[in-house]
Amino acid sequence: MAASLSTWSSFDCTGIFGPFTLAGISAIFAENWAEPVDTSCKRDPGGTVRPFPGRSLSRIGAKRYRSTMRFTAFKDPDCGEAMIGRVDGPDRTQIVPVDTVAAVYEAADALAMIAVADAVPLARASVSELPPVPPTSRVLCLGQNYLDHINEIKEVGRKVPVFPNIFGRWASTLAPHNGTVSVPPGDVGLDWEAELAVVIGQPMGPTAQSDAMSGILGFTAFNDITARGIQKATSQWMLGKNGDNSGPLGPEVVTVDELGDPNDLAISSRVNGETRQSANTSLMMFKIDFAIHYITQAMTLRPGDVIAMGTPAGVGAGMNPPSYMNAGDVVEVEIENIGTLTTHVV
């Protein structure tokens, strides 16, 4: 792009803001588009080069992009790279490739990068979808964030928390929409936990509660699938919460402007079509802004980090008698304005 402009750099033009040279335009593009990168994995070999990681779009109209959109991740069918794609088309059946997952989350303005992508769309059904966050993500989960869930478990000595009770998951446990999960050998089965997940979009050191929402890239659904036998064997939850493929995330990330108020969304889960959880995120004891404020007093959040906001009542461990999932069961998590996240137990 810059090379073709330099051919005309000796010409002067006058625009609505006064005189400027095409050499100046060339410099702006050189600044914002950086050096060429390997494009062997892009979907349109003869078309527009993908946006580059970290480039600034503000001087070429980036602030005018649409901010109401959805995106997901998928495996590039040509080279196997993990890519971000904007979800488009009737009934959200198309994916417009953007760039690699790593490049998007490293970008100075990921939303602009996703919004301006204009590659040839792919049929969503033709690609293998992936968790829509990078493998470097930290997954921070709020336990005991709905009072009715605390009451249904009835564990001896459990008290209503004064601060968020946070535990961690590894990103390697994340799974995509329509993925599969297995029951660990010897366990009683798997429990379901429908949760709203927050995807961080910029580095966030110590952050005031009043500023916390500005660092969010989007929201999605999460199922904190739990091996209850392993979880309850000790006072530490880690093993029971980190089984292979036990953290389905999806079906897509919805931007802040697209979603509406995240603290007032219907949230539910179904097992084999039967409703097990039905609540509203307004029942969260610790709201999203406070959770971010609290976490960032201890650690810096990075783009792609995930905060799972806890689950309402209706989990299998709270039923009488307890009920768990085993091979052949299908679990769905549905959140208003986001969609339905499906997982198959095998």
What does this structure look like?
This protein has two domains: 20-55 and 64-130, no CATH class; 138-345, Alpha-Beta Complex (Fumarylacetoacetate hydrolase, domain 2). 16% of the residues lie in helices and 31% in strands. Strands 3, 4, 5, 6, 7, 8, 9, 10, 13, 14, 16 and 19 form a twelve-stranded mixed β-sheet that branches. A five-stranded mixed β-sheet has the order 11-21-20-17-18, with no helix packed on it. The chain has a two-stranded antiparallel sheet with strand order 1-2. Mean pLDDT is 85; it is low at 1-40 and 43-63. It contains eight helices and 21 strands. It has helices at residues 2-6, 22-33, 101-106, 110-116, 147-153, 228-232, 256-259, 288-296, and strands spanning 12-15, 18-21, 70-75, 82-88, 94-100, 122-123, 128-130, 138-143, 165-170, 174-175, 179-181, 190-191, 194-200, 216-223, 226-227, 247-255, 266-271, 274-280, 306-308, 330-335, 339-345. The chain is an alpha+beta fold and 346 residues long.
Describe the structure using short key phrases.
alpha+beta; disordered N terminus; 5-stranded mixed sheet; 31% strand; 21 strands; globular; 2 domains; 12-stranded mixed sheet; Fumarylacetoacetate hydrolase, domain 2; 346 residues; 8 helices
